[in-house]
Amino acid sequence: MNTRHLGDANDLAKKDILKTLKTGLSEKIYVVPMFSDVFNEEQLAFYKFITHADEIKTKKFEHSKRKEYLAQLPNEHFGIIFIDPDIGIKDKFKEGKKSFYVHYDEIMLFATPDNLLVVYDESFDNGKDKETAIRDKIEVFKNRNCYACYINFNRQLTFALISQSEKRLEDSKCLLIDEKVILPSRFVHQVK
Asked: Does residue 94 carry a pLDDT above 80?
C-alpha cells in the first residue's frame, strides 16, 4: 500500500468488504498494510477509516526486512486480518530483492482455524485467462491446508478470502452475498 493510491476506487471496494465482514461477523480487524512509503497522520487516519481497522501495523514495510516485519504478529486475537500489499500475491521472490507482493509462505504466518484472511490482489494479467489464474492460486492455498475463494472484480482487481476453517470461509461468503455487497457471480471457488 502506498500514498499514491490512497482513496482510489479500489479502496472503496476494501471499505465495503471489510465493513460488512467486521459488522456481520462481530470481529476485530488487524491490518497489515505493507506500507511502501511513509503515511502522515491524516493519511493514516483515512486508511484506518477505509479499512475499519481496530489495529494497523504502522511500521513502514522494508523489503530487505520482510521476514521480521511479517513475523511480528499481534498479541491480541483478531478474527479478520487484512493484508494489503502494493500489487498482490506471488509464489516466489528472491531474498533481499524488492517485491511489491506478499508471498504464500508469508500469508500462512497469519492463518489459523479461528480467523479469516482477506488479501488484496491485483497481480493478474489482463491478457490471460484470469479465472484460471485465480483457480491456480486457490489450489496453492488448498495444498497448504486452507480454504480459499476470490472476489473477482473487473480487470485485475481481486480479493482473496482464506481460512483454515471451511465454515469460516463459507460464513464470510454468505454474509457478503446476503448483505448485497458482492454478487454471487463475482466469487471464484475451487473446483471440487
From this structure: no
